[in-house]
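ok, trying the design again with the full structure, not the truncated one.
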């Protein structure tokens, strides 16, 4: 969201000619923020799922590169479809004859295209940075599976 905010602000100034922050700008920023959060949840949940799904028996043998590739295969399709659907719906708003609403439609369409592109190119880097530097351990569910497997061997 923070990376697409300057683009939204630039388009707002170019299309409306207004250098102040209006209610229309707040609407565009709100819609862009909610869709960016939706994209983030899609990718993050795919990354978590790639860490807990068993590849061989009860254990996950995927490397970090394989996990990111799996996430791109699954989450990027969802992001592209959601971006396309939002662009179609906001481009319908862009053909309304009322100038203020037409500007919102144009801004939203451009903000969604640019936001989706920026998201697909930058958010995986943030996920990898978080995985390498903040969460030094594997996910709790995977540890539980290994613990259950160990308990089964002891019985």
């Amino acid at each position: 969201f923070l990376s697409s905010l300057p683009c939204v602000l630039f388009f707002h100034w170019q299309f409306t000619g207004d250098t102040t922050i209006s209610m229309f700008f707040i609407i565009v920023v709100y819609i862009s923020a909610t869709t960016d959060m939706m994209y983030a949840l899609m990718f993050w949940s795919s990354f978590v799922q790639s860490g807990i799904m068993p590849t061989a028996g009860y254990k996950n043998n995927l490397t970090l590169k394989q996990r990111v590739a799996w996430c791109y295969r699954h989450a990027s399709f969802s992001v592209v479809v959601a971006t396309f659907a939002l662009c179609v719906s906001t481009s319908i708003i862009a053909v309304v004859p009322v100038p203020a609403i037409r500007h919102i439609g144009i801004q939203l369409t451009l903000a969604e295209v640019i936001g989706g592109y920026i998201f697909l190119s930058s958010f995986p880097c943030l996920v990898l940075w978080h995985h390498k530097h903040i969460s030094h351990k594997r996910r709790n569910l995977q540890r539980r599976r290994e613990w259950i497997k160990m308990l089964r061997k002891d019985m």
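Keeping the full-length input from now on. The mean pLDDT is 76.
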